[in-house]
Amino acid sequence: MSEPNGEHLRAIIQTQTEIAASDLDLDAVMQLIASRGQELTRANAGVIEIADGDEMVYRVTTGEATPFQGVRLKMAASLSGLCVEEGQVLHSADTETDPRVDAEACRRVDARSMLCVPLLHQDETVGVLKVYSPEPAWFGESDVETLELLSGLIAAHMSHAQLFAAEVHGGRHDALTGLLNRRAYEERLPVEIARASRYAWPLSLCLLDLDDFKTINDTLGHPAGDKALQQVAALIDESRLADDGFRIGGDEFAILMPKTCREDAEQAATRLCRSIAQIGMSDGSLGASFGVAEGTGDPALLHAAADKRLLAAKDRLHRRSG
């Protein structure tokens, strides 16, 4: 456990000086402070989580948490979410016995003790600065004071809490469908691959697009096409088949399926396509094709493998209809 000393204060003053003397943007400031927080508390991981709707987003990660950048967790199921809701420091001395935390999830990231400090701006809690350790009862009062001072440095660089939250959401969500966008997909894919590799579980990727979507726009109009995309997105979001669904192109969607082998993912995608066909366009024209790949290697190769199978499915469809 850390003991109070002047080194923490000197390090925080040094951090403030570094920020003031440089032209760091907010992300760079958060990265510096997360690293400094981990170092000063002798934790094995540092995280800055940002509240986005009913979810907490791992915006910045250091140490053992590095592979999890971009991960999204339900606010109601995390100590960080509770920290945001209550707007106060929360300390879990032992995650094995603390009913406020998901003990199994904590074991996966080797977090036996955890300290969360709210990020406040204009009296609104917009996120959390968090550190965790594999040892129980690791953090003391000096660690709380250290993180509170560091969180204040982040708050000073937030131009406005609402604008900041909008940037987090808008930068990673598709405006039409509300699904995560291509930027979020490109961030999330390597994270999920790293997790699957680390825990030796399967990971499947499904790429799906609508059949002859241009015809729908041309014959029924773009408003009908937009409505179809929204309905498909709602089915993906409600299907509970995926950890995350993304709109990555005009009528192209991606679905990440952790802990799912290719065979099971293909069955799930088949059911989803059947539901899409039942949406009920006025001319009965809506359908979808998909390609699924499984793997834990290069993200680009996994995407390419799923895309190749999607193109093959589209070719078979055109041959049948031709």
Short note summarizing the structure:
The chain contains eleven helices and ten strands. It has 322 residues and is an alpha+beta fold. Helix 1 packs parallel to helix 5 and helix 2 packs antiparallel against helix 5.
Q: Tell me the strand percentage band.
A: 15-25%
Instruction: Point out poorly predicted stretches.
Output: 159-163
Determine the fraction of residues in helical runs and give it as a percent range.
40-55%
Largest sheet: 6 strands, antiparallel
Spatial strand arrangement across the major sheet? 3-2-1-6-5-4
Instruction: Find the structural class using helix and strand composition.
Output: alpha+beta
The second-level CATH architecture of the largest domain is 2-Layer Sandwich
What order do the SSEs take from the amino end to the carboxyl end, as H and E?
A: HHEEEHEHEEHHHEHHEEHEH
| CATH topology category name of the largest domain | Beta-Lactamase
The counted number of beta strands is 10
